[in-house]
Amino acid sequence: MENEHFPGIDEIREVQQCKSRCFSRGRSNAKEASYRKVSVYIKSMKKYRRERERRRQVRLLAEKGHTQKQIASELGVSTRTIKRDWDKIRSYVKGQVRKEIWQIEEAKRKEFEQRYEKLGANEKLHLLTQDLKSATESAHRLQSRRRPRIPHQQTPKQLDCILDLDSPTADGFPSVIVP
Fold first, then answer.
1. How far apart are CA 49 and CA 54, in angstroms?
2. What is the pTM of this model?
């Protein structure tokens, strides 16, 4: 068998030395690849932190009731940026709201179970009817609070009048007859 197609030991060592020279740190004059530069990575982390902080501020200001224009002017960015940030954080906010609702619901369920645990059937029925009445009253109060109230607005009054088109006034307008 001839070993001509297999590299010799000297050739293997030469290739290994060439690789170590090419990829050694600080020993070669060749430029390092851009993805190896730490400054690029740090710069992107700074940008990520700025965006995360801005999105947190957008969420807080939106919870206070600010409009997108007000948030944009306060943070010094465009309204399109605010819309994009809100699209990014919308699922997080929904998840937080669902989590709060679940926690409240769980606490109410535990309270309900503890309240009715040792009662008889008639006592449970009586207590349930009282709870139902109070829940209905609070629901009505919430619905009445949701209606927007416009201050100093008078209720509209009805005024019946007849327009006489046959005998116009001196200006040419029809005369008005109030019964």
1. 9
2. 0.40
The pLDDT of 86-96, averaged and rounded, is: 89
Instruction: Please report the pLDDT score of residue 39 as a whole number.
Output: 55
Supply the pLDDT for residue 150: 56
d(CA 163, CA 176): 5
Residue 4 maps to a domain: no
Domain count, the chain: 1
Are 131 and 144 in contact, with CB atoms under 8 Å apart? no
C-beta of residue 161 within 8 angstroms of C-beta of residue 177: yes
What confidence tens digit (pLDDT) does each residue in 143-157 have? 776 555 555 666 666
Asked if the structure places residue 121 within a domain, the reply is yes
Local structure of 166: helix, strand or coil: strand
Q: Which residues have a Cβ under 8 Å from the Cβ of 175 and sit 6 or more positions away?
A: 163, 164, 167, 168, 169
Please indicate, yes or no, if residue 74 is contained in any of the structural domains: yes
- Across residues 99-125, what is the average pLDDT? 84
How large is the average pLDDT for residues 25-44? 56
C-alpha–C-alpha distance, residues 111 and 103, integer Å: 12
> What whole-number distance in Å separates Cα of residue 82 and Cα of residue 68?
7
Domain assignment of residue 66, given as a range: 35-132
- Would you say residue 70 lies in a domain? yes
Structure tokens at 92: 């997080």
CA–CA gap between residue 64 and residue 66 (Å, rounded): 6
Q: Mean pLDDT across the stretch 36-65?
A: 81
